[in-house]
């Protein structure tokens, strides 16, 4: 006679298969969470050291923001204030410890708001994404990221002194996939 099962019982192999799938699922989720946390920690690693360098080697007395910029070289960009309350920016090379720490007083430069206003006037069909401070060959720049009218992802650079277009820009065709 064939063995009959009650409606709420299952064969032994089915129970083990469900348990195995559950363990694998929990393992994958744990791995993904751990990887995400490690990437996030790496993203801001070295920021505390860059703050200390900016405070000790420049006129800054307080730090507002620390960010990253990857151009030809990798930099930490530190924004802060000096004794007079003026905003300054410090570029610290993360690739070359012997490279000089670069400091610029931003009060004499084109502000972020003014730069965005000028950019919006010049690029009416564009979809703004982000603006950051950048640097190329010891020249401080504004980096504006946007989607242009041809649906391309664009990185465009402007000098912070007068807001004029800088020679570097990248236009990346967006994938349909």
UniProtKB/TrEMBL annotation:
Residues 49-92 form the Cell wall elongation regulator TseB-like domain. Keywords: Membrane, Transmembrane, Transmembrane helix. The chain crosses the membrane at residues 13-33. It holds the Pfam family TseB. The keyword Glycosyltransferase does not apply. It comes from the Bacteria. This is Cell wall elongation regulator TseB-like domain-containing protein. It comes from Aquibacillus halophilus. The lineage of its organism: Bacteria, Bacillati, Bacillota, Bacilli, Bacillales.
